Amino acid sequence: MAVAYKQLISTAEKMETSLASLSPPSVILTQDELKKIAAYKAVEFVESGMVLGLGTGSTACHAVDRIGELLRQGKLKNVIGVPTSKKTHEQALSLGIPLSDLDSHPVLDLAIDGADEVDTEMNLVKGRGGSLLREKMVEGACKKFVVIVDESKLVPYIGGSGLAMPVEVVPFCWKFTAKRLKDLFEDCGCVAKLRTCCEKINKKEQPFVTDNGNYIVDLYFKKDIGDLKIASDSILRLAGVVEHGMFLDMATTVIVAGELGVTIKNK
């Protein structure tokens, strides 16, 4: 994918034009430019006075930047953000976005976040960035959940990308938990791997640790896992599992940016 509509994205201000009214791009867009287009479109749902769930990841980062910019310009006022990760918390603070939490605001007006996969029924995989528990808590408390993706995230079924479906687990006996997770989906050719980080101690890779002090076991499927609600319940019944990255029946709107423009799907 290459360079975006140069006349469109040369400045953030020009992104304010409604994308729906734009003619199709004459040149190919990079994946990051597609993410930015989707993110800016999602921020059009934000109104002054809202309490917002602020997502985590490369796509959500563009939305948080845009919200901060509109607050500085005075085009948004009295917005409060509830971040889904420490990283987003730091980003929002740097942009001057007032922050709170679910204890003070148990019901949110709107959440904006990206996704790692979106299936044909608007079910999601999230958490490849490691923030799935906080994301699910925040986005489960909102009236509207707007998901922003580029078209590479669309899959025919959950797990269809062949990439990770994350499960957050407690560190205690994680190998035991990982084996039980693998055994649950043995018929689907499941592989379970502990996620590691870049840091090494004595040349040994170290586990990735979430904001909650837990580990992540990534599941990889060779086949469709079938009924997602049954799969979800089976995972959550395992002692040692904290949460999984399937976000089922949660998205109310999905915004997809592709080379031919932006599409919006609503529940």
From TrEMBL:
Xref: CDD domains: RPI_A (cd01398)
Any GO BP annotation: pentose-phosphate shunt, non-oxidative branch
Reactions accelerated catalytically: aldehydo-D-ribose 5-phosphate = D-ribulose 5-phosphate
The protein, known as: ribose-5-phosphate isomerase
Species name: Acer saccharum (Sugar maple)
Origin superkingdom: Eukaryota
Keyword Zinc-finger: no
Recorded metabolic or biological pathway in which this protein acts: Carbohydrate degradation; pentose phosphate pathway; D-ribose 5-phosphate from D-ribulose 5-phosphate (non-oxidative stage): step 1/1
GO molecular function: ribose-5-phosphate isomerase activity
Pfam families the UniProt entry points to: Rib_5-P_isom_A
Keyword terms: Isomerase
Recorded family membership: Belongs to the ribose 5-phosphate isomerase family.
Signal sequence, start to end: none
Documented EC number(s): 5.3.1.6
